[in-house]
């Protein structure tokens, strides 16, 4: 009797030690219901329930991954900041400020508008290059507006002054455009400017390709910084893909049929019909070519079999 009850409760998943304690307390002739009540009162649980209560140590791994480490890396990338997928931004401060000031005043507010626009999109690496002599007090031949913005951006480690000095009363200025292109090229980022840097394109062939492919032009509309939605033209990437390291390709969109449900071409219609989900998106000529290729390939295989020894 003891062994039969022991086997019965072991099949239910309870431990042998708990079962033996209850049988010693209640006696060998105790009913199964009484033994079960006592096991529950003691807090004993079947092993199946204990395994469910414990947090599983298994981790979900994406299809195609080789191990849990790669899966955790993929999860870490998804949880990480979206700024990791955005390109660094290098702003031509002089070009932006003069453009905002209608080429008459060096407007520092224009630089602030451009920086805020990229910050709102999630870019964390933003650098603005401005010549050092813009720190000097404004003069009639070089007026500056909102000069305190330069100090604030410098404290935030966003603005970088290119070196300049005076020699015998003459100002010696380093070429700030070379700084802009060089940093953007090394960081694999984007140049924000309306300048084409033609002299630097002729200077270095690698810079020539980079300037052509990574130059982001802009406009100011009522104190609003507005880059184009198609930076490289109508057939180029969108602004979102242009600023991201991993561009997302758009899904192909089929042109809907102008006749709709009244179309009489059937499956031979080259336009898209939403009411026909299994429609083959091939033109009549492509369908005929596909039908011709199949019998030709079958005939070649038969010839090979006939000629084979």
From TrEMBL:
Zn finger (C3H1-type) location: 251-276
Domain (C3H1-type): residue spans on this chain: 251-276
Molecular function GO labels: hydrolase activity; mRNA binding; RNA endonuclease activity; zinc ion binding
Superkingdom: Eukaryota
InterPro entries in the cross-refs: Rege-1_UBA-like, RNase_Zc3h12_NYN, ZC3H12/N4BP1_RNase_Reg, Znf_CCCH
GO cellular component: cytoplasmic ribonucleoprotein granule; nucleus
UniProt-listed Pfam families: RNase_Zc3h12a (PF11977), UBA_6 (PF18039)
PROSITE patterns (UniProt xref): ZF_C3H1 (PS50103)
Cofactor(s) needed by this chain: Mg(2+)
Keyword entries, A-Z: Endonuclease, Hydrolase, Magnesium, Metal-binding, Nuclease, Zinc, Zinc-finger
PANTHER family the record matches: N4BP1-RELATED, RIBONUCLEASE ZC3H12D-RELATED
Entry similarity comment: Belongs to the ZC3H12 family.
Name of the featured protein: Ribonuclease ZC3H12D
Taxonomic classification: Eukaryota, Metazoa, Chordata, Craniata, Vertebrata
